[in-house]
Amino acid sequence: MNKYDSSESNTSFIMLLFVKFTLLNLTLCLLYHSTASEVFTAIVDLEKLLYTEGEVIKTIEKYIEMEEKRLQEIRKLKDEYGRLHQVASKDSQSFLENPINAFLLVKRLSTDWKVAESLMLKSAGQAMIQNITQTRDDLKFPEDEDLTGAAEALLRLQDTYKLDTSTLARGQISGTKPSHELTAHDCFELGRQSYNNGDHYHTILWMQEALDRVDEETNKTVDKSDILEYLAFSTYMQGNTRHALKLTNDLLELVPNHPRAAGNRAYYEDAIRNAAHMKRGDDGDVQLDGDVNYSESSKMDTELSEREQYEQLCRAESSTNFEEQKNLGCDYFSNSHPYYILQPIKREIVFKAPKIFIFHDVVSDREIEVVKYLAQPRLKRATVQNAKSGELEYASYRISKSAWLKNEEHPVIYKISQRVEDLTGLTVSTAEELQVVNYGIGGHYEPHFDFAR
């Protein structure tokens, strides 16, 4: 029996006690009312008890049905947790390198965990939840902010690397092992996070993907009506009122008494009439906005060229021409230092003006492990300095944790600093300590200056 089976058995045992306790309460209530009214004195009263007993059976059957359904839902969640955890445990590092897997891991322990928590709280599972969430100091659960951050990271990667929504939802990302496919609810959650951030462009992409997937699902993971409501409003916010009206009509066909859809439909119809009045030309023809294909390529280009170049570098797209590239290359470099004359360092020239070099195999694997070991306990969320207040604060354009290591803390740190001086000819005595940065899901730091302006 594995740990999941054990958990299921404990839950079933607790549920059995809960059912027995409920039956005992019902029996005591019946005995009390029977005694009070002395039903044993007349067959007619006993016949009434038969009806009562029938209702008790129906009540118990309903209770068992509800509890079995609840346990079935919990068992389904447990199986899903177990299946994905088994895959992740085989190679956790490779598994987490895929941002889809990272997003799903955070989602499973935030949104999905809340579903499991709600199901367990309906019974004796409350004590189990308190045990795992309040008394286990060795466990860590993500907050809502973590789910938001994971979703934003996935969207950031989608834009930076120009990833197709459907391909991304299938878990197919170049350079990583394929991940578990996203369900309609997973896509809905990404769309909902985008909506909450006022990002209607990504809301449309992911709500449309959720809509496509929910139609293919046998066991629906999200209500289609919820998808249509978000999709309709974001479509309107993106300027396509007619398509928003169509989606709202689809919603009303699905849920005729929807609390908001009728009002939204009236609003969209008014907007279309007003637009028609404004756009009516000399010939009397009305030109209305048509359906828009919200593909990745339709996003308006409002970013600066500097950012475009930065994203090109992330995609490993070369911005140099042939004439520039032919002057680049690799060599063995010693900087005329006695220590490196007999064992020079591999140097790659990646840009001529300004001069940019990459030194390869400068730090050994053992040294890297030492640096990671020293830095890990000190890693803290990276901050930026507010240009107006001068205070340090968190920022969405810097997603990482960092730590600082001094030369005197370990011989390896001193050797690395000395190596930097030897190969560059520059001194590190006036520079900052060695900074170790750990980037999270979609971690990045947008182009910036390190000097104060």
Automatic annotation (TrEMBL):
Gene3D superfamilies: 6.10.140.1460, q2cbj1_9rhob like domain, Tetratricopeptide repeat domain
Molecular function GO terms recorded: L-ascorbic acid binding; metal ion binding; procollagen-proline 4-dioxygenase activity
Domain Prolyl 4-hydroxylase peptide-substrate-binding residue range list: 184-272
InterPro entries in the cross-refs: P4H_N, P4HA-like, TPR-like_helical_dom_sf, TPR_P4H
Domain Prolyl 4-hydroxylase N-terminal: 43-175
Keyword Translocase: no
Annotated Pfam families: P4Ha_N (PF08336), TPR_P4H (PF23558)
Keywords recorded for this protein, A-Z: Iron, Membrane, Metal-binding, Transmembrane, Transmembrane helix, Vitamin C
Positions of transmembrane segments: 12-33
Domain of life: Eukaryota
CC per GO annotation: endoplasmic reticulum
PANTHER family per UniProt: PROLYL 4-HYDROXYLASE ALPHA SUBUNIT, PROLYL 4-HYDROXYLASE SUBUNIT ALPHA-2
Protein name: Prolyl 4-hydroxylase subunit alpha-2
